[in-house]
Write a structure and sequence with these properties.
CATH superfamily of chain C: P-loop containing nucleotide triphosphate hydrolases
CATH class of chain C: Alpha Beta
Distance between the termini of chain B: 55 Å
CATH superfamily of chain B: MetI-like
Shape of chain B: flat
Number of helices of chain C: 10
Structural class of chain C: alpha/beta
Structural class of chain B: mainly alpha
Largest interface: A-B, 85 and 90 residues
Largest sheet of chain B: 2 strands, antiparallel
Strand content of chain C: 25-35%
Radius of gyration of chain B: 26 Å
CATH architecture of chain B: Orthogonal Bundle
Number of strands of chain B: 2
Strand content of chain B: under 5%
Number of helices of chain B: 11
Number of domains of chain B: 1
Oligomer: heterotrimer
Chain lengths: ~300, ~325, ~270
C-alpha cells in the first residue's frame, strides 16, 4: 500500500498550488512576448506594404503638399548611416582607448574605480539629456564653424550614448585575456604599447567588436538625442558643408511624420519603421554571430 | 653566436619610448573623457538653469502652470508624470519580468525553447523607442481603449480613473513604458537567477521542498539584491525614456489626477519644446532637465551600489 | 639569523649580481637580504620549498615583478655592471636582454612561425626571418615536430612542444640570459626530459637561471645551485619570509651541504 501513497496526487493542495504558480509564470512569459510579436507583425504589415523603389530613392514631401503621396525616405536612410558613422568614428577610439586604460594600465586604484563608476552612471543618463547637452555646448553656441543644427552635432550626441558601452565591453573583453599572454609578450621584451596592440587587443577582438556592434545598433535607432541636434531635412545631404547642415534620419522622420495629421505621412512613418527595424535586427544578428564566434574559440 | 648583430632595436630608439608613453597618455585622456562628459553635462544643465532657479526656486517643483505667454513656469505636472509613469510601469513590469525570468531559468520547457524566449526578449529591447511609440499610437492605444472605457465606467468614481479615455494619455504611456523596461528586468533577473549556486537548490530539494517553495524560499532570496539592482536600473531607464512616451502621453501641462487624461513627463517636455524654446523657457526646461538628471543619477547610483553589494556576497 | 654562506669568492665572472635584495608585496616582505652572484654561461638553479620566494627572486631579475602593482624592491640587481632598478633604466630593454620562459606554456594565438618572428621583429631583427625561425626551433629541439606546420597555430602543438616553442621564441630574441620559471612543472616526464636536453644544448650560448621544485632536475641540468628557504617573520609564527640559505656548485650543494636546512631539504626531511 505504501506504493499508492507515493504516487503523484493531482488533487492535493500542494500540487495544485505548484501548478497555479507554474501556469502564472508561463502566462507572464506569454504576455512579455506578445508586444514583440505584435510590433513585428504590424511593422511588417503596415510598413512592409509601403516598401517599393520610391520609398528608398525619393525625398519626403512636406506634410500637406500632396495628400496622396508623401514621397520616400531616401535622404533619411543616408542620414541614419551618416550620423551613426560619425558617432562610431567619435566613440570607438574614445571607448576602446578608455577601456584599454582601465584594463591594461590601471586595473585597480581609485581613478579607474571612479571611471568605471562614471561609465555606468553615464550609460544611465537619459538619451534626451545627451541631446540637451550637445544643444547647449554646440548648437546654441554655433561653435563649429557657425553652424547650429548639424549632422556633426547629432553624431556627437549619439557618441555620448555609445562611449560608456564601448568602454565597458573593451574593459571586460581585455580582462578576459589570459595574463599568460601578457607575460609572454613582456617577457620577450615587447613594450606595453606593442603588447596591447599586437597581442591583447587582437585576442579580445571578437568580444570588443560585439560590444561595438551592439552600441551601433542601439545608436542607429535613437531619436531623442537627434531631434534638436541633427534636426531634420527634406533634402539630400550634399555639398562640402554637408556635415554642418541639418540632416534627416529615419528615426526623426518617424517621430515627425507619425505626429502629423496626414495619412500619407503616417504611412511613410510606417515604411521608415520597417526599414529601421530591419536594419537594427540585422545589426543585432551580426553581433550575435560575432559573439558565437567568440564562444567557439 | 650567429644573428646577434642584426637586432637593431636591442637598445630602444627614443621614438619607440615616446610612442609607448604617448599611447599611455592618450588612453588615459580617453578614459578621462567619461568624467569630462559627465561633468560637462552637469555644468551645462546647471548653468543653463540658474536663471530659472533664481526666479522660481522650489516653487518650480510644485507649481503646474507652464505658460510661455505670460512667462510663468512650474514643472509639477511633468515631475509628477515622470514619477507616476515610471513607478506604475515598474509595478506592472516586475511580476511579468521576474515571472518570465523564473519560467526561462527553471526547466519547465525544453532548453532550446527557453533560449528562443530569451533571444526574443532581447530583441524586444532592440526595437527603437520611436517605432514602439508609432505602434502605441496607432495600434495599441485604439486596441486598449475599450478596456480603459470599461474601467472608467465602473471605477470612474476613483479620481485615478476619473476622466474618459479619449486617446493619448498617461495610462497608455504607462503600458508602453512597461513594455520598454520588461527586457531589462527579465534579462537581469534571469542572469541573477542563473548565478544562484546549484547546491542551494539541491539542498532545498533534498529536504523535500517542492519546486515553488524552493523558488520562493531559496532561489529568489539568494538573487534578490541583484534583481533589485536590475529593477532600479529599469526605473532609471523608465524615468528618462523619451520618444514613445512623448508620442503617447498627450503632452499636456494641465494637472489631472486621472490616468486616462493627457499628461507630461520631463523628458517628453524636453523633446517637445526644447528645439523651439527661447529665453526663460529654455532656462526652465534646463531646470526640468536638472531635476530629471538628479532623479536618474540617484536611482542609478543606488542601483550600482545594490549590484556591487551582491557581487561581494558570492 | 644570517645563516647563509655568501661564497663571494666563488664566482669571479658574474653576469648578474643580487646585492641585499628584499622584495615585498603590499608591504609584506616575501624575500629578504638576498646576496647572490650568477655565473656567466652557466646554468644556475634555484631550489627550495614552495613559498620560499625563489620565483619572486627570478622575476626580479628581468623586472617582471613590475607587472604586479603592489610589489616593491630594496637592494640592487646588477646586470653587466648596471643597476637594473635605476630610475634611468628602461625595463623593456632589460627584458630584451634577459628573456623569460614561464611555468605554463604560453604561446601567442598566432602561427608557430609568427610566434617566433613576433619577438624578433619587435627587437628590430633585420636578417633573414626564415633562417632565424629554423635556427631557434632547432636550438629548442622542436624543429622536427614543427617544420611541416609552421603556419599552423601554436596551440596545435602538445604541451611539451608548446613549452619548447616558448623557449625557441625566447632564443629568437637572442637574450644574454634566459630565466626559466619551473618550465617543466606542467609537463609529462618525456617532455621534461626533452626540455632538459634542450637546456644542456642552450648553455653553450646562454646564461640560464632555472627555478625548479624538482631536485633531481637541478642536479641533472645545473652547474650551480642556490637553495632558498622560508623562515617565520617573527617568533610567534604568522607570515613567512624567504631567504637564500646556500649557494655553491651544484655538486657541493647536494653532496656536502654546509647548512643543516640544506641537508634536511636534500635528504627529503621537509619541503
Amino acid at each position: 500500500m505504501t506504493n499508492n501513497k507515493l504516487s503523484f496526487n493531482y488533487s492535493s493542495k500542494r500540487n495544485i498550488t505548484e501548478f497555479i504558480f507554474t501556469f502564472l509564470s508561463a502566462f507572464a512569459s506569454i504576455i512579455v512576448l506578445m508586444p514583440l510579436i505584435f510590433i513585428i507583425i504590424y511593422v511588417i504589415i503596415k510598413g512592409g506594404s509601403e516598401l517599393n523603389l520610391s520609398l528608398l530613392t525619393q525625398l519626403p514631401e512636406p506634410p500637406g503638399d500632396d495628400l496622396n503621396n508623401a514621397g520616400g525616405v531616401g535622404n533619411a536612410i543616408i542620414g541614419t548611416f551618416i550620423v551613426t558613422l560619425l558617432a562610431a568614428l567619435i566613440s570607438i577610439p574614445i571607448g576602446v582607448g578608455g577601456g584599454i586604460y582601465l584594463a591594461e594600465y590601471s586595473l585597480k586604484g581609485p581613478f579607474s574605480k571612479f571611471i568605471r563608476f562614471g561609465a555606468n552612471v553615464l550609460s544611465g543618463v537619459p538619451s534626451i539629456i545627451a541631446g540637451v547637452f550637445i544643444y547647449g555646448i554646440i548648437v546654441s553656441t554655433r561653435i563649429i564653424l557657425g553652424s547650429n543644427f548639424s549632422a556633426i552635432a547629432g553624431g556627437l550626441a549619439l557618441s555620448i550614448l555609445m562611449i560608456p558601452t564601448i568602454i565597458k565591453t573593451t574593459d571586460e573583453g581585455l580582462k578576459l585575456v589570459s595574463n599568460d599572454l601578457r607575460k609572454a609578450s613582456i617577457g620577450i621584451g615587447a613594450s606595453k604599447f606593442i603588447t596591447i596592440i599586437r597581442i591583447t587587443l587582437p585576442a579580445a577582438f571578437n568580444s570588443i567588436s560585439t560590444g561595438i556592434v551592439l552600441a551601433i545598433a542601439r545608436a542607429s535607432g535613437e531619436t531623442a538625442p537627434l531631434i534638436f541636434t541633427a534636426l531634420f531635412s527634406f533634402y539630400w545631404p550634399s555639398g562640402n558643408d554637408m556635415l554642418l547642415q541639418p540632416l534627416a534620419t529615419l528615426s526623426v522622420l518617424i517621430y515627425n511624420f507619425a505626429m502629423e495629421p496626414y495619412e500619407a505621412q503616417n504611412q511613410l512613418a510606417w515604411g521608415a519603421s520597417f526599414l529601421l527595424v530591419t536594419l537594427i535586427l540585422f545589426i543585432n544578428l551580426l553581433a550575435r554571430w560575432l559573439s558565437n564566434k567568440t564562444m567557439e574559440k | 653566436m650567429p644573428f646577434n648583430e642584426e637586432f637593431v632595436l636591442r637598445n630602444r630608439p627614443r621614438m619607440e619610448k615616446i610612442i609607448d608613453q604617448s599611447f599611455q597618455n592618450l588612453v588615459l585622456l580617453m578614459a578621462s573623457m567619461v568624467a569630462i562628459i559627465l561633468l560637462g553635462i552637469l555644468t551645462v544643465i546647471f548653468l543653463g538653469s540658474t536663471e530659472s532657479i533664481a526666479r522660481y526656486g522650489f516653487k518650480f517643483l510644485v507649481q503646474s502652470e507652464w505658460n510661455p505667454v505670460n512667462d510663468q513656469y512650474g514643472a509639477f505636472t511633468a515631475i509628477y508624470g515622470t514619477l507616476l509613469t515610471s513607478l506604475a510601469s515598474l509595478t506592472l513590469a516586475i511580476p511579468l519580468g521576474v515571472g518570465t525570468a523564473i519560467f526561462i531559468t527553471e526547466n519547465f520547457i525544453h532548453h532550446k525553447l527557453r533560449n528562443i524566449i530569451g533571444v526574443m526578449v532581447e530583441l524586444l529591447a532592440a526595437i527603437p523607442s520611436v517605432v514602439l511609440g508609432l505602434w502605441a499610437v496607432y495600434i495599441m492605444e485604439p486596441f486598449l481603449r475599450p478596456s480603459f472605457l470599461l474601467i472608467h465606467k465602473y471605477l470612474g468614481w476613483i479620481p485615478l480613473f476619473g476622466s474618459e479615455p479619449l486617446g493619448p494619455g498617461v495610462a497608455p504611456a504607462i503600458i508602453v513604458l512597461s513594455i520598454m523596461i520588461l527586457p531589462i528586468i527579465t534579462s537581469i533577473s534571469r542572469d541573477s537567477l542563473n548565478q544562484v549556486p546549484k547546491k542551494l537548490r539541491e539542498a532545498s530539494y533534498g529536504i523535500g521542498s517542492t519546486r515553488w517553495i524552493t523558488i520562493f524560499r531559496v532561489i529568489l532570496p539568494a538573487a534578490i539584491s541583484s534583481i533589485t539592482g536590475g529593477i532600479l536600473l529599469a526605473l532609471g531607464r523608465a524615468m528618462g525614456e523619451t520618444m514613445a512616451v512623448t508620442m503617447i502621453i498627450g503632452n499636456s501641462n494641465t494637472f489631472n489626477f486621472s490616468i486616462f487624461s493627457p499628461g507630461y513627463t520631463i523628458s517628453a517636455m524636453l523633446a517637445n519644446q526644447f528645439g523651439e524654446a527661447d529665453g526663460n523657457q529654455v532656462s526652465s526646461l534646463m531646470y526640468a532637465a536638472l531635476v530629471l538628471m538628479i532623479l536618474t543619477l540617484t536611482v542609478n547610483i543606488f542601483a550600482q551600489w545594490m549590484v556591487k553589494k551582491l557581487s561581494l556576497k558570492y | 639569523m644570517k645563516k647563509q654562506t655568501l661564497n663571494t669568492g666563488l664566482i669571479s665572472n658574474e653576469i648578474i649580481s643580487l646585492e641585499n635584495v628584499s622584495i615585498s608585496y603590499s608591504n609584506v616582505e616575501a624575500v629578504r637580504n638576498i646576496f647572490c652572484k650568477i655565473p656567466r654561461s652557466k646554468v644556475t638553479s634555484f631550489i627550495g620549498p614552495s613559498g620560499c620566494g625563489k620565483s619572486t627572486v627570478l622575476r626580479a631579475i628581468n623586472r617582471m615583478n613590475d607587472l604586479i602593482e603592489t610589489s616593491s624592491i630594496k637592494g640592487r640587481v646588477i646586470f653587466e655592471g648596471i643597476d637594473i632598478y635605476d630610475k634611468k633604466i628602461d625595463p623593456v630593454e632589460i627584458r630584451r636582454r634577459i628573456g623569460m620562459v614561464f611555468q605554463q606554456p604560453n604561446p601567442f594565438p598566432k602561427s608557430i612561425y609568427e610566434n617566433i618572428a613576433f619577438g624578433a621583429r619587435i627587437n628590430g631583427y633585420t636578417g633573414n626571418m626564415n633562417d632565424l625561425v629554423e635556427y631557434s626551433l632547432r636550438k629548442a629541439a622542436v624543429w622536427e615536430e614543427c617544420k611541416d606546420k609552421l603556419n599552423e597555430s601554436g596551440y596545435s602543438l602538445s604541451g611539451g612542444q608548446q613549452q619548447r616553442l616558448c623557449i625557441a621564441r625566447t632564443i629568437a630574441i637572442k637574450p644574454e640570459v634566459i630565466l626559466m620559471d619551473e618550465p617543466c612543472s606542467a609537463l609529462d616526464p618525456i617532455s621534461t626530459l626533452k626540455i632538459e636536453e634542450t637546456i644542456h644544448e642552450l648553455k653553450k650560448s646562454f646564461t640560464i637561471i632555472i627555478v625548479t621544485h624538482n631536485m633531481q632536475q637541478a642536479l641533472r641540468v645545473s652547474d650551480y645551485t642556490a637553495f632558498y628557504n622560508a623562515e617565520p617573520t617573527s617568533k610567534d609564527g604568522g607570515g613567512k619570509v624567504g631567504y637564500l640559505v646556500e649557494f655553491n656548485e651544484t655538486e657541493k650543494v647536494f653532496n656536502q651541504p654546509t647548512q643543516k636546512a640544506t641537508e634536511d631539504y636534500i635528504s627529503g626531511k621537509f619541503g
